[in-house]
Design brief:
CATH class of the largest domain in chain A: Alpha Beta
InterPro entries (chains A, B, C, D): ATPase_NBD, ROK, ROK_cs, ROK_glcA
Number of helices of chain A: 9
Protein name (chains A, B, C, D): Glucokinase
Radius of gyration of chain A: 20 Å
Shape of chain A: globular
Family (chains A, B, C, D): Belongs to the ROK (NagC/XylR) family.
Largest interface: A-B, 50 and 50 residues
Helix content of chain A: 25-40%
Oligomer: homotetramer
Strand content of chain A: 15-25%
Low-confidence stretches of chain A: none
Order of helices and strands of chain A: EEEHEEEEHEHEEEHHHHEHEH
CATH superfamily of the largest domain in chain A: ATPase, nucleotide binding domain
Enzyme class (chains A, B, C, D): transferase
Structural class of chain A: alpha/beta
Keywords (chains A, B, C, D): ATP-binding, Kinase, Nucleotide-binding, Transferase
Mean pLDDT of chain A: 95
CATH topology of the largest domain in chain A: Nucleotidyltransferase, domain 5
């Protein structure tokens, strides 16, 4: 059975027809306006109209960054789109002529589900997905099922507290994991290191064109791959925070696998080796179970489309 | 359908016939020897023989403090009993004449399941159980199912790290939640407070008979209920650590309910109010979902028997 | 003997003739340009010319925000003025006709010295001065002498680390005391609290005119004095960080007195009581010595002038 | 001018005649009884009688582990000897026939002073002495003078808090520096590491004779020198805590030198290199001053005698 997955970004949506093996058979895109929720409704209806001409489609999964209620119909809150308690499912439905099943999902959940079903996690039943990008998002698979929580707000992994009195987070709290294990944290730590030791930070500063405020995560990764000692240390520190936090999650959920997605994955073993060591070092009951593997995500940018489509079938 | 639940303690086992509503129809006990695993096997077989004379029993659930494999047959490790990779299920079976279903469960999981099915959590699908005793144990219910993890070692909630570089834990790590949110932590903090300020600690010291090493958790609770300011503060601090840690779990699992079991529950609102405030203060996405309730467990000491029996039916 | 004290701010200098009792006999001011170091040299020479017409002056003390070398002649670095290894003493001298003694001092040291000699600390020999403003500055008096350190950079109290992995500091490190015990910290914590709980933060948000970014420290203090529970809590938290950090300083230096200066002093006991409790709670060897007092500074904004003048006499 | 230095230990006292260059001209010892304060008084009088037969002595300095009042006459509290507000100076004087000057000093202060006057610190005016033994003691030299504090209890460096909510300390507080930077911390961390990873800890466990409770600091040092990776890591971690804490002290006092004494010094660069790196990494105002050196103490076990004698002359 085919389903359409729609990945809603800030200024565009990407959609694809996905078969039961997770293969994308056809794709399309539309530009959207984040401040105009109706433009997004129309775009979703539009891609459905287009894609359903050539394929028989029995469900639409819509993935978006935001809190989705447990009925998978309403976006409670979205950080980058004008959705506040927005009944996205019903608004889209009202624009369609047929009664195709429509399901709304959090985008990190969709991507994690894709990895679980068709990617790095297809061999396991219990998995922690971490999407290490600007922030730290994620998804939890427990016993083969996606964890949505009582109110649809589970898997806000980035807001587990890892340091009491630690870094301020945009959520209003201190010490959230994403302030230590994200691309933003990597860049901030790099900028701080340049302040502390200009000589040691010279390579990174040069890569940033002379202004540390312009430094990017990929530049840090590039510098590390070129052997810059500071950049290597910064990625190792990021890896350690990923691994140590994952060990806390493992104390709760005992996953068989931790999948790392997001841009920092480009750093490869410069990130993963420290993450694995830190995870093993901090893992409780270490001698009494196998250690969960830590692997990179394998589904790429289309994980959101694939996961949303697949979740719509359930 | 009736099932027998067996709760294995250090020096005795308690067993009961439990019906499908969680009611215990009959109970019995046996003394056991923790260093003699076979004595426990025989005691389990023995209580089954006794109880199955009067009741038709279709399953036995055996709850024990320790790591149980995901097949629910073998105790991987137990802190207080001589079990190391011990095939408890098969050893008991070998002593029985019939082929009644036998299931081994972690005792905290069993107690949490009883609360979920018949106690404080019977109205919810997603629940965090915390057993605050000498240590901090617990159980996780996600989507109506008990979380066991990939290797049966999930819900080791007490070993989520809450303070990097924090208190030493018997597990070899630092800063584990149970070093801040347990009866032992309460007593240690009380002892430390007596050292810091003898005047302020005078009431507690007197309750301990003049030697802080003899202080107990119930004494601290009693002093708090009698209005001793230090004891009130100590319970409030314990409550805050419970609440703050529970907020980290909520970031991951979004439970509808946190159930507090174990001896410290006797402190009632002296503990629960600070826990609730701290939970609310630390909860991420607070404005976008209802707040989980924090309630005391309602099943008492027989939760292990009831939960083990009920899990054996599944 | 009279001395002139000069307090160099970002855009103006204030100067006064100070007698040996710390009384300011005459004052004057000049506008200056922070990007033009020579304009400041000329202004200092100019106020000397003016004030020395009416008073016999034997020394000039110049106080400035920045690192001053241990010879008290050169500003190594200033955050807000274009001084980098700037020989301020010699530049001013070159503009003067006579050989009056000229001494350069860090402004926090000057203010602390004034409190020690003529203000809150005049009865003690060992004192910690904390200037809690935008940042956290201070001065240390040990055995009746100002602590300057081996390279003139002592008493950077705000950069003692109080939380490993804590808040980012402009200095490039994490967890510096000033990120927890300053007016900026107060405002940031208030802004965060508004994000966490809009209802609880409503009063502060209203005081800020509806935009938390516009909130100021004095608004928080005002709200606390009017009884707003959140504001009271925020000042108490600030006070606790002041007291706990001061206890660490006391472990090192065993001062008889901690003097709190800077704008937050306006909060009075709303700040001081929590500071005193936290200090006592965290003080080591508490039963074996009197507890240092914690008092507000008494010299006001002219402490810099008075202290600089007095230090120039030594 | 000659002075006698007396170093009072738990079960014996060691005394020597010291000249103005810090050279010990003659030595003697007496056994003492820690529970019998009078036995110590007599032993001090006795060594004075013996040593003053051959040397003209003008002062006696008595060094002891404990809090000494600022008049340098009374031991306020001693952890290992039966002194509580004990007027040691006057008790000894009452046993003597002449009116030789007698001064009581804290033993860590005495040892630090010896390093400052005659040892590693003889070229500087501002110095931090750290004695890393069972606990973490120290001495502070500011502007060429020993810091005693308002009540004689300064330089309790081990009780500066470095981790809020950190390890319990015998003083009743949490997170004291000495719980991270001492020989005891080294051993506890080693024991914890053995629990976490038995394979990695095998060498240390073997050195301890198979029982981690018997492990000693010198065994960890020996293992590190023999290349055991865990032991090397443990010493590096100890070194980092020393360096990071010293950076906090440097923010306050800007010393030119940090001197490391105590048993862990045997680890040499395995300890010092990580300490130096961590100190440099955490040092505030790093680009604006030279970095303090970190060196081993050079005076050996007789530092207490030499320092006590020299301080008695002041």
């Amino acid at each position: 059975m085919h389903a359409i997955g729609v990945d809603i970004g800030g200024t565009k949506i990407a959609a694809g027809v996905v078969d039961e093996d997770g293969t994308i058979l056809a794709q399309t895109r539309r530009a959207t306006e984040p401040d105009d929720a109706a433009s997004i409704d129309r775009a979703v209806a539009d891609v459905y109209a287009e894609l359903s001409q050539s394929y028989e489609v029995q469900a639409i999964g819509v993935a978006a960054a935001g809190f989705v209620n447990s009925e998978r119909s309403t976006v409670l809150f979205a950080p980058n789109i004008a959705w506040r308690d927005y009944p996205l499912r019903d608004r889209v439905r009202a624009l369609l002529d047929d009664d195709v099943r429509i399901v709304v999902e959090n985008d990190a959940n969709a991507a994690g589900w894709a990895e679980f079903r068709f990617g790095a996690g297809r061999a396991v039943d219990d998995m922690l997905m971490l999407t290490v990008g600007t922030g730290l998002g994620g998804a939890l698979i427990v016993g083969g099922k996606l964890v949505r929580g009582a109110w649809g707000v589970a898997a806000e992994v980035g807001h587990m507290r890892v340091v009491p009195g630690g870094h301020y987070c945009g959520c209003g709290h201190e010490g959230c994991w994403e302030q230590y294990a994200s691309g933003s944290a990597l860049v901030r730590d790099a900028q701080a290191a340049i302040v502390v030791d200009a000589e040691r930070g010279a390579t990174l500063l040069a890569l940033a064109g002379g202004d540390a405020q312009d430094l990017t995560g990929p530049q840090v990764t590039q510098a590390a791959q070129d052997g810059d000692p500071l950049a290597v240390d910064l990625l190792a520190q990021l890896g350690r925070w990923i691994g140590e936090g994952a060990a806390s999650v493992a104390a709760l959920l005992d996953p068989a696998l931790v999948v790392i997605g997001g841009g920092v994955g480009a750093a490869g073993d410069l990130l993963l080796d420290p993450a694995r060591h830190a995870f093993a070092d901090q893992l409780s009951a270490r001698g009494h179970r196998p250690e969960a593997k830590i692997m990179l995500a394998s589904m790429g940018n289309e994980a959101g489309i694939v996961g949303a489509a697949d979740l719509a079938r359930i």
